[in-house]
Amino acid sequence: MVLFRLTRDSSLPLHRQLLNELRHAILSGELQPHDQLPGEIELVEQLGVSRATIRRAWQEAIEEELIYRVAGKGTYVAAVQPTRTPRKVIGFLIPGFHSPFDSYLLMGAESVLRAQGYGLLFACTERNVDEENRILAEMCADGVAGILLWPALGNANQRYLMDPHCTVPAVLMDRPIPGLALPCVSSNNHRGGLQAMHHLLGLGHTRIAFLSSPHLDLWTIAERFRAYEDAMRSAGLEPLAPIVVGTREEFKVYAEHYSYLKAYHDEIEAVAGLLSRPQRPTAIFAMNDLMAFIVMRAANLADVRVPDDLSIVGFDNLTLAEHIDPPLTTVAQDPMGIGKEAARRLLALIEGEPAQDILTLLPTELVVRGSTAPWQRKEAKTGPETSSSSVTAFDEQPSEIDHALR
Q: What pLDDT does 248 receive?
């Protein structure tokens, strides 16, 4: 009997997960034409879900012609008739399905593909290149018509998509893979970074720091840091060396709550130590909202008031950003738009159209909330206001700062 697996902590509705499991079982041959599926009561007991969840999944599967019902007998796997066009399915891989961002990305892609008669087979790679390669090979063997991929962070020389025998059309989402000339749809991270920096500079801040995990070589983060440096120099200020905290392991999305609520996390303590220094920055542009949450908890530990003593800007506009105290000013991405555009690009490739632009960048939007405010000179807390002396004081002991933050 086929065992369907559902993930309770996923942001994806259970009926969509069940539909995806069914698609995979049929494509992989685990379920054969005319095999009978377990009954509703049996699935309720096996999966711990409601009958309404099962009925909704099965109804969508019937609409996709994956299964059919026989009154009084049960539900069966549909047969693919020899005279029919093979069922059209797109493989959709991202690092995880734990946040609204992930769900909106999928919803955007699915809305475009479903309108063109395509189903979606989705999977998460758990931010692991080996798992990504395994799933890609499996999907291609199952005969998917194309691939939408949010690449895992890892060795670019070991990618399945670099195999010359891999001829399935593919479009990347969020980030390109170095050395691989595949179309990629992402946010305009440089423009978004400029929006964040112009906001802070416009509030009168001159001692602004960029806070990042050790992923400054990752294209999306590199673009945001480039915007930080460009904006500082355009304002006649010398950029500070980036503040780097954490490890090379990529953030897991469930850290959205964990990073904010766990007060004694190593990274939080390290940033709190920085904020306790006399020449601390007056504003921080964090590489993403998760890092901004760390700064907010660190500020609380260091008895630094946000935004009175420190302004903070994030990047992503995660759901939690508007619910924390104070609400986070951040740069919003458009995950649904990214999913839609990536799907459109993929359909064009499937139809035989040559790739136009390798990189498609969608606009971002600055969302101003309560974590930023105009800077007021506070001699007792931060020392002289002169930007040159501030930079010197902040950078004069780089080894000590580096040691404290790592």
A: 62
pTM (two decimals): 0.79
Tens digits of per-residue pLDDT, 376-394?
865 434 433 333 222 222 3
State residue 15 phi and psi, 5-degree precision. -65, -30
Spatial CB neighbours of 76, under 8 Å, sequence gap ≥ 6: 34, 35, 36, 37, 67, 68, 69, 70
Give pLDDT tens digits for 319-373. 889 999 999 999 999 999 999 999 999 999 999 887 777 899 999 999 999 999 9
Of the CA atoms within 13 Å of residue 325, those in its CB half-sphere come to 1
Measured CA to CA, the distance from residue 289 to residue 226 in angstroms comes to 18
Residue 168: name the closest of 93, 97, 116, 84 by CA: 93
> Distance between CA 231 and CA 109 in Å, rounded?
34
Q: Report whether 208 contacts 282 (CB < 8 A).
A: yes
Residue 51 burial (10 A CB sphere; 0-12, 13-18, 19+):
exposed
Tokens of 164: 């010359």
In angstroms, the CA 121 to CA 140 distance is 11
What's 88-143 look like in SS3?
A: CEEEEEECCCCCHHHHHHHHHHHHHHHHCCCEEEEEECCCCHHHHHHHHHHHHHCC
Strands 329-332 and 365-367 come out as: antiparallel
Torsion sign (Cα): 51, 52, 55, 60? negative
Q: Which neighbouring-strand residues pair with 121?
A: 91
Residue 76 DSSP SS3:
strand
Q: What is the pLDDT of residues 157-192, one digit of tens each?
A: 788 888 887 889 999 999 998 888 899 999 999 999
Structural domains of the chain, ranges and CATH numbers in brackets: 1-85 (1.10.10.10), 189-333+365-405 (3.40.50.2300)
Quick one: DSSP state of residue 30? S
The single-letter code of the amino acid at 378 is: K
